[in-house]
Amino acid sequence: MKKTVLGELEELVLLVVAASADKVYGLPVLEQLQINTGRDFTISAVHTTLYRLEEKGFLSSSVGGATAERGGRRKRLFALTAAGGRALQEVQQMRNSLWEAIPEGKLKLLGL
Amino acid sequence: MNTETEPRPPRWADRLLERFVAPHLLEYLQGDLHEAFDRHVVQFGLARARRKYIREVIHCLTPFFYKRKSITPFPKPALSDMIQSYLTSARRNLVKHRLYSGINICGLALGIACALLIGLWVQNELSYDSYLPDAKDIYFVRLNSTNPNTGEIGTGGTTPGPLQEAIAKDVPEVAAVTKVNPWMEYLIKVGEKAAKEKGYYASDDFFNVFNLPVINGNPRKALAQTNQIVITRAIAEKYFSNGDALGKTLQLNNEKFYVVGATIENLPSNSTLKFGWVVNWKEQEQPWQKTWGNSGFLTYLRLKPNTTAAQADRNLKGIYPRYTGEKSYTQPILQPITDVYLYDDYKMGKPVGGKIEYVRVFSIVAAFILLIACINFMNLATARASTRAKEVGVRKAVGAFRSALIGQFLAESMLTTLLAGTMAIGLVWLVLPLFNDVFGKHLTLHFTDPALWIGVASLLLFTGFLAGSYPALILSALKPMQVLKGQLQSSGRPVFFRQALVVVQFSLSVFLIVGMLTVGKQMDYLRTKHLGLDRDNVVYIPLEGNVTQAEKMESFRQQIMRQPSVISATVTSMLPVNIQGTSGDLKWPGKDPALQTTVTAMSVGPDFIKTMNMQLVDGRDFRIGSAADSSSYLINEATAELMGEKDPVGKEITFWMGKGRVIGLIKNFHMNSLHQAITPLVLTYLPVNSSYMLVKTRAGQTENALAQLQKVSREFNPNYPFNYHFLDEEYENLHRSEQQVNTLVNYFGFLAILISCLGLFGLAAFTAQQRSKEIGVRKVLGASVSNIVGLLSSDFLKPVLIALVLASPLAWWALSSWLGTFAYSTNLTWWIFAVSGVAATSIALFTVSFQAVKAAMQNPVTSLRSE
Q: Domain residues for B144?
């Protein structure tokens, strides 16, 4: 099986879902993203990404309750799967090893 | 709940979303959008929230949200997927059966290429003179003369000089009328440059009738001056640097200088007007051109807008009685200028044909060839049907509709025709220069011309549809159960149909072979027919410059006759193989005053009979310097018959030179194309009126003779380049269109047979392959090779023989009516049909037996072991 590559937005969305205590649906994910990154996202982009992640097996989804403000429409709630957790770990490990590869004192030299 | 105050997102955006987004995604997406909208209303206010909502919705218009989830577990392929599948199976089929596809495509390409070539040719033929501005208002004037004795009407294209003035005065419907003396080819000289160019002497209104595109100057004003000349772009560019000719002078015929008053665009190749220069009519006018009795010019007129030829005809009728002052049997008639080229054959005063017949013949030939190619395609496709029956069965079993299968087979045949069409265009592009060369045409493929593409596309669609329709309908009707069980019967209707198609195909081929042979035979007849004069080894030189004076002309002639390679020489006013002048002036004592006679007439010099090697029934030739000969006449047998004289020599007649005697009776000879019958002829002795020197050279000494003639010509006429032609060439020119038809029919007949054979070859190969098991069994049981070859061949010979029987009477009928257009023609003999029959049969037999022998020689083990 080919290795699944995570795009930047995919990684962010996956992290947001992982961070939340319960199952989440599109809108809170969007809000969390905006709060944490300070960037603007569209609902369509977030939804597309969520469905893609589900397709890849990193998220699972179920249908949740409707509220009045949604005009009685139900929510699709997403939760992290084991595969999704593993994918996040892999990304983190990869990042860490890259971080470790930076020579000591180099960032300091740059005044950081 | 108060719905009126509750903020809502824009309704249209919601509708758009509901329409666009796939149902299984819509609910959750729309829910989130609405929730976000509610929060935005609180945060930013209604207006901004609505704007944001619209932006969000627009962002949702992506393929991801559009794609519907399939409801059934079975895939329902989109049309594009099926087309891909069709293309794949078409391509695989083509590649798998390379031989058949090759035959199919090549045959069709050849057929389409032929049709295209002929189409281009026909289009060119039909386009003659349509380039003229307002061509529909321009008419050519012909003369109908009724023979009061027989009631026959003869139609001539040349008119007398005064007719033009009469029409201008008496026919109010006419806007402009002009007369043209078109027979001129004069030397044009500018500085050192000099060459002969064809030109017209035309009366003032020429450019009012023909509103030809002008480059500079005013041709109308220029033609009104007797010292100005109008030239075409080609002449201007040839003689003047940069083509800048306006106001410059040039010398015409080594005589008068003319100022270039205007230059006009070159005439296109599809013009019946052919000239490089135009000069005022008065510059050449002679007294006889002002008489009504002598025709020799072309008259053209332009009608006023919104008048019809029929209205003008009424006024034209009165002209002859009014001006010739007698009960006249001559009447001018009008012919649209666009018809002049195609309809020059008149019978009983009505146009009956001309080159249009060739246009029709070739359109038919093109249709034949295309049909033959289509039949090939259908034959091979139906034959191959059985091998594809399984495919049809499988497709039907997995749910293909009949319409889809019809579509598939039609699309396949379209694909094949498209390939063939591409090849055909390439082929035409390659062959066109050769074709133009042979037929003296300037046809081009205009790749930017939408008409070409529309024409080709419709041809391809038509062919593809015709060729694909039968297999499409038959194959798609197969019952999947039977097919998959292997119960497809390979006999019965399709075989009968194929044989019927082969019959049609070979009928057409036989028709074309018979046509080829007959046209060839008639051409041969024309070429070798003894005309009554000897056109071989006759060189003619136009008389110009010094030698147009009587004495010089005679000493020039004498000098030529002194050359060792020359037998004899004479001078004439027209070429004896194409005498165009007619006259109504002939009278004789005892002639019925009511009798109107029109005779062909020409003036000649001494030794005419001798040079032309004609046969004198009685009397003698014109003699040099014989004073008495200046009022003597030579007549032919047809004239003697007209006069009712058995023994006319010595009888008195009155003609151009007044009262005189007949000194010789010439055996009838052909003085025109063989389409025309021999008419009465009177020859007058008037050397000074001559335009040509005709020289009979000794056989085999043409080279010598030309060298000697050139020397003599230089001596007498140093200002003119030596210029010569052969009389037999002139005769060939008269029959050029027949010659071209001959060549065309030969080529296309050959192609038709080739295409037919390609089809037969493919069919035979296929049958041999289909029957390989049968052949194997037969061989095992003791059949010989010749048995098997006979068996396979006879299947194909039957349709060919039926075709012979069908095509022969049709061909006989068509060709005898073609031969009927000649006044003198060869006859259709039985051997033509015999030869065509044997040829068609043997070609077919050869094609088929090649495959049959191959099949019969095969070791039966190879065909039988597979089972």
A: 135-340
